[in-house]
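Form 7-S
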Amino acid sequence: MLNKTTFLRVFGRLGRVFGQIAAVWLATLVPAAAADHLRLAVQKTGTFAWELAIIKEHGLDKKADLDLEITQLASTEAEKIAIQGNSADLILSDWLWVSRERSLGSKLTFYPYSSSLGAVVVPAQAPFKDLADLKGKKLAVAGGPLDKSWLLLQAFAKRSNLDLKRQTEVLYGAAALLAAKTVQGEVDANLNFWNFCVDLESRGFRRLIGMETVEKELGAKAPVAMVGYVFSEDFAAKHPKVIERFLDIAREAKVILAKSDEDWQRLGPQIGIKSEAELALYRQRYLDGIPHRPVAEEAADAKLLYHILAETGGPDLVGPGSELAEGTFFRPQMEN
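Output:
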């Protein structure tokens, strides 16, 4: 027979075993808390799409307990419609558009994503040394007459009494089309977006002037993040941790892209890159555009450039706002 002490010891052990079994059984009955949902509208061919692919590939979304619903769209305009129609929580756009929307009553806000812009690209053997040499030449401009880079370039040129709009033959069009015309020799110079400039440079063209130089000459202290994550103030107020966790994993994805040769090798075919030299240049331009400054410094330079853009582009570009709208730049709690 068991004495009292032995009986209690055995009974206690059995109790702990049954308790553990019960805990496991209950865990199977109670569902795990659902990950926080975030709807993203993304241009199918943009850099944001493959940055999100890195997030998925490395499981950064799961680590942050985020359920990312990604909708790929054909254009940046479609992204704007998506967030305005509340079918997306976050898109990629520029602070100029966000400021315009805020001046019209919207409560969108912006957080820096990239300072990568474009450049004026010319054939390697062309005799052009500066913008003044383009007088009377054909200049292709991607993005149309209200493109931010084009307006800034005009403002910069006017400081040297050069009116690019009047003194060159300007051809507007889609970035890919104008890049093709540049390769075919139908234009003398091309102001294009950074990724198309990389393609042209890999084909033997050279940069006559980069937009980072233009920004600096216009008074900016450093390259300005023109493109950023855009979401509503209401969403950020209701889901502050969701936004901050997403910004955290977006930064982590950029760190991975800064270090990982393997990920770039995988991305190359997806982006459409055909050579190792082009891939190396594409990678360098992308990494150069990663913002490292405090948001307050980005906002200060944005205010300066806003005045120049407003003067050059007028109400058609900026709407009724004479200043960069208050609240355009989002300030995460971690940076306050």
